[in-house]
Amino acid sequence: MTVKSEFCDMCEIFNPDQDIVGMLKENELATDVVYKLAEIFKTIGDPTRIRILYALKERELCVCDLSELLEMSSSAISHQLRVLRNHKLVKFRKEGRTVYYSLDDDHVMCLFGQGLQHVLED
Amino acid sequence: MTVKSEFCDMCEIFNPDQDIVGMLKENELATDVVYKLAEIFKTIGDPTRIRILYALKERELCVCDLSELLEMSSSAISHQLRVLRNHKLVKFRKEGRTVYYSLDDDHVMCLFGQGLQHVLED
DNA sequence: TGAACATATGAATAGTTGTTCAAGTATAGT
DNA sequence: ACTATACTTGAACAACTATTCATATGTTCA
User: Fold this and answer.
1) How long is the CA B15 to C1' D16 vector, in angstroms?
2) Which CATH number covers residue A90?
């Protein structure tokens, strides 16, 4: 906040920028919401994770399916699946020694759609 | 691809997992689309940039407004605005020595809405 | 012209992130 | 019990990112 002379009281009161910043401060998103939003978008903001989520679009898949499809080590896939799991974007079910992963959230594919609209326009 | 004995031809042909991976490979998103998607989401996946975009929701703001609002140096804000500019998420207009930034894309706020739905549910 | 202001930019640095590698658990088949 | 398979996990390392600091550009006002 800049210091103003007493001759400038009126200026300060009517200074539109001061008002705007003040109003905006009241309307700001809560800190935890901002961080949660950032977390989700950051999570979806990785090529490997995008490919995994997209592959799971129709049906559940096991780690080795994903490993073959993306041509990456199952360790790398497993690490990324953990990230997706931690953010509740995928869920899993065990069957013997294989683990099947599937999407855990309806919004993700909507987000994809919106993102694609942005990407494909121009 | 695992090697199979000739006695197992039928198994290979009818192995559902092999079929699934093959089908998925055909349906994969194009590499450049995947990368562009990742770029957008990564760009929106930062708390500072989220706050900037949210502040610009209603009206254009200059760098020093944003600097005051977010209580960060104008240099930091400027760096982030460049990232947003590079990804075509904000545009700017100069008026004297001040530069006004505003949203350059309709989809961004839709993405925010979707993201918020995910965040606020549970 | 000179001082103050608004913004931009390059380099540096601390923190974060994705993949690999090596080792671990757990289940299935022989 | 042994071996192979499916997956997970921790550590390590390289690549990337956000902020700071110092400096530069361009504009306004006196």
Assistant:
1) 41
2) 1.10.10.10
